[in-house]
Amino acid sequence: MEIAWIGTGIMGAPMARNLMRAGHRLRVHNRTAKKAVALAAEGSEVIVAADPAAAAGGAEAVFMMVPDTPDVESVVARIAPALHKDQLVIDMSTIAPAAEHAIAERLAKAGVDYLDAPVSGGEAGAIDGTLTIMVGGAESAYKRAFPLFEKLGRRVTHMGPPGAGQMTKLANQVAVALTLEAAAEALALAESGGLDRARVLEAIGAGAAGSWQLSNLGPKIIAHDWRPGFFIKLIRKDLRLVADAARAGGLALPGLALMQSMFNAAAAFGHDLDGTQAVAAALDRLARLK
Amino acid sequence: MEIAWIGTGIMGAPMARNLMRAGHRLRVHNRTAKKAVALAAEGSEVIVAADPAAAAGGAEAVFMMVPDTPDVESVVARIAPALHKDQLVIDMSTIAPAAEHAIAERLAKAGVDYLDAPVSGGEAGAIDGTLTIMVGGAESAYKRAFPLFEKLGRRVTHMGPPGAGQMTKLANQVAVALTLEAAAEALALAESGGLDRARVLEAIGAGAAGSWQLSNLGPKIIAHDWRPGFFIKLIRKDLRLVADAARAGGLALPGLALMQSMFNAAAAFGHDLDGTQAVAAALDRLARLK
């Protein structure tokens, strides 16, 4: 299949690579051209497009994987004139659910199928093709995209109408943030009590306190290893989207508010381009009584 | 072995029963005698003792499973005159680490081995003998108690000196509380966004947002099933102990403070004798903007 891939960053490049390896022809574009050129150098079936419209024009399916809501809106504005009936456009970025709803409506008028399909699983999941993919949009478009999603992720779920994928991702992110805080506070308490924190992870990790965050980021917190799996900068963006969506749904979530403060503090302490687990470094400074 | 078991409540009774089934002779005592009598009726090798000292006097190992720090201190005060050299006393209640340290020191003077060995896993874990057991105290006492712990739990870890078991349990509890809030807020957001929450659990439960709390209590939150696995009343007590221990360690933990407020609110809304997952009912009332 002829596929356009717009956005070949940390996540987008390995995802596009998995489609390339599955035998698809790729037309790639990236705002910073160098990254797209590097990807194209890997395969004879990959060409670099000068702009998003040139990538999208001749493709059966068009993927976007860019940072934020305005980036998706800008790409859509640029490709819309080049799109034609029966094309399939899939946004795998994490952006506002309401924006996806508007885009889906706009493209539907041109006969273009549109899905929001944000992912969870980080760079490792993108490389291994084991991402969790949460999809919003029409059932027929979902069925059409499913064989492609299978090359990118392991758990693919159709969540409902346009925006439902993004809303699920936002629920995922608020859970991720608070579960990480749970790990950070438990380990801070353990350290203040003189415990061997690695042994604490072993003792409590498989029971009612257990979580992916505790098992996977707990050891990094103990080792003060702040290298990014997922940037503080990006979870701050995601939690802003969560807060917007919560407000639109009539909710002010107290744990969400706390985690916005914690990650903002982490950024203020210089950790914006570190991994989310660096929230433990912020906690270490904010929670000290002496 | 001749074993004294003091405290045959929701947790204590099934734990004592597992030792009985393993072939030990039990001398049981409970503040509300009726529960001890009911347990004794189950086996010919179980007798009811009129007071803690009468239970402890003739036993090789003495277990305590009572609600709070003052309860343990009161039992210890009553059994201490009856204890003799080489007896083993094991506290499986969840109480203040500092109190365990003082008790261990006091009993050591009489040649009595003492362990703090709080558990996680709730009533189901107590019944199935699959509890997580976190142990503080001397290595020799731990080795002596290990064959008994094996009848009660699956994951048994020696955490360090007296009080280390309790400190580990407190780290466990702060993680449990915040991870539960993560599940509650994610599901509240999902509901406000019109998602099928059961499908959300499926989509995100195995990834970076995954946790024991989300998988086990998420479905109960969705079903508004507030029946207790673990009482709000008891986690409020535990989080008070966490706050005391954190303060003693020079820490003011922001997520802990939030969760004390949340569970206090749940109690104020009438959920003190419901399960911890009823914090979602409190959230539902506290987080609404309209």
Structure description:
The structure is a homodimer of 290-residue chains. With 290 residues, chain A is of the alpha/beta class. The first copy, chain A, has two domains: 160 residues, Rossmann fold (3-Layer(aba) Sandwich), CATH 3.40.50.720; 121 residues, N-(1-d-carboxylethyl)-l-norvaline Dehydrogenase, domain 2 (Orthogonal Bundle), CATH 1.10.1040.10. In chain A, the strands form two sheets. A six-stranded parallel sheet of chain A has the order 3-2-1-4-5-6, with helices on both faces. In chain A, helix 12 packs across helix 13. Chains A and B meet through strand 9, helix 8, helix 9, helix 10 and helix 11 of A and strand 9, helix 8, helix 9, helix 10 and helix 11 of B.
Level-2 CATH architecture of the largest domain in chain A: 3-Layer(aba) Sandwich
Number of domains of chain A: 2
Largest β-sheet summary of chain A: 6 strands, parallel
Number of helices of chain A: 13
Looking at the structure, the CATH topology of the largest domain in chain A is: Rossmann fold
Class of secondary structure makeup of chain A: alpha/beta
**Estimated helix fraction of chain A:** 40-55%
Assembly state (oligomeric): homodimer
Stretches of chain A where pLDDT is under 50 for at least 5 consecutive residues are none
Q: Considering the protein shown, what is the CATH homologous superfamily of the largest domain in chain A? A: NAD(P)-binding Rossmann-like Domain
